[in-house]
Design goal:
The structure holds two protein chains of two kinds. Chain A is of the alpha+beta class. Chain A is 16% helix and 30% strand. The two termini of chain B are 24 Å apart. Classes of the chains: A alpha+beta, B alpha+beta. The complex binds iron/sulfur cluster (2 copies).
Chain lengths: 407, 136
Amino acid sequence: MAKTLEEINNKIRTGQVVVVTAEEMVDIVAEKGPKEASRTIDVVTTGTFGPMCSSGAMMNVGHPSPRIKLGGGQVRLNRVRAYDGLAAVDLYVGATALPDEDPRNSVFPGEFRYGGGHVIEDLVAGRRVLLEAAAYGTDCYPRRELAAWITLDEINEAYLFNPRNGYQNYNVAVNRSSRTIYTYMGTLQPQLASANYCSAGQLSPLLNDPHYRTIGLGSRIFLGGGVGYVVWQGTQHSPAAPRNEKGVPMAGAGTLAVLGDMKHMAAAWLRGASFRGYGATLIVGLGIPIPVLDEDIAAHTAVSDADIVAPVVDYSGAYPQRQPDVISRVTYADLKSGEIQVEGKTVPATPLSSYPRAKDIAETLKGWIAQGEFELTAPVQAIPGADSGMMMGPMPDNPPQTPESPQ
Amino acid sequence: MQVSHRIVLHFPRAVTGEPIIYRLAKDYGLMFNILKASVSPQEEGLMVLELSGRDTDFQHGAAYLKERGIRLQPLVQDIRKNDDRCVDCGACVGVCPTEALTLERPTMRLLFDPDKCVVCGECVPCCPVNAMELQF
Ligand code: SF4
Ligand code: SF4
């Protein structure tokens, strides 16, 4: 018999809830079958801890005296460019933003030691950050220059707002060329000598709810060590991607936009990161609980690494040229064994997304729920599913005719 | 003046297979002791070796290597894994030439075996969170 979310939340309140991680659920369903598992298990927790470039922090830093209008001016946080095209003292710093002085790839491969992701980590770790701004000055906001230390505690608001996290499956990156390449998928050895992948596989949130039956707008989640919410489907959301017979997407598919109060987050779960030759980013800890409302949900949360296939893509050719070519498909069980077969060659496979940390997140969330500290929410609206036909498209090939201005 | 240097050589794909080391000995009079090599045909290679001889011969030998497109890097003293920073992502495993960095299975935690490490330094810039540290 199906359960309701309210029944599950009541069990959370009374300490009777049965919650397991998505990893534990694999064996439970294998043993008991989905029907029995759906009766005994109330919640399955998922987790992922990997680099997610489409992340950033929205802040209001408070008004100095005299006041300044940052909008239309220039703002830096620890020299990193922040976006200021908002109201007077609202800001957004993106994970991949860099200081102007960073040499980038002019000495190849660049190191990208410090960027927006590191600013976010510093703030969450309680370290002070130097805000420097130049403004044009108005009657109401006369100030033209500002330099001030800010801390997460003292600013009015800071919330993480990540337009795209939690990718439902992802590419496996290889390099067919004859030189080492440096990508957002890490350093790739030439001649198919390494393969990098980036998904928590069986622990990954959207792979455990492939049709977005329980994860939708308003779902309460673990975000960066604190509590956050799913606020929209993520950018490039592509639920109509090809799926296997179990409904699991066979390539990058669904994504989530998430938001949460940074004041309750922890630096252990938000880490600034540098990818050699590529740039700076943020490693984000994300965990989503799935209420086991019925047998169908139980069956889906039992997805194992052997059931999930990912496309192997050449990051020296097909990917940068935006060609759809997939070399082959491998399972996460293959990837996690440490070796995959690509074009008849045995290739060492290494992850970029931390499986041990993903498991820690699923365990932490499980603890919160078991102790009655975290209740589940029903989505206020579903995110578009496979039947929406939604697929990300390319940029239209539409260059301006010279000389032509944007007006 | 006699010198002795421990260096790491990074070979581009094209020069592997040429008798580079033989030339260093024959044309430049340098003595060599190969400490570790991971050079296979058709791939970029890496060799850790000790070169000794007259300082001027070493300079000429080094210039010859650079001319052949080989990158030289002084061998640092030690490499350390900072456990507080490491997030067990595994990104460094793919660049380590000696299996000093491996993932334990099935936990997928990073294992660092200092005995296998040749201190080539490849993992240092590769680690996204600077958890592999050089100690001079
Ligand atoms: S320095 Fe790093 S990459 Fe090089 S052998 Fe040691 S552990 Fe491996
Ligand atoms: S790349 Fe860095 S963080 Fe990742 S496993 Fe290696 S040492 Fe740890």
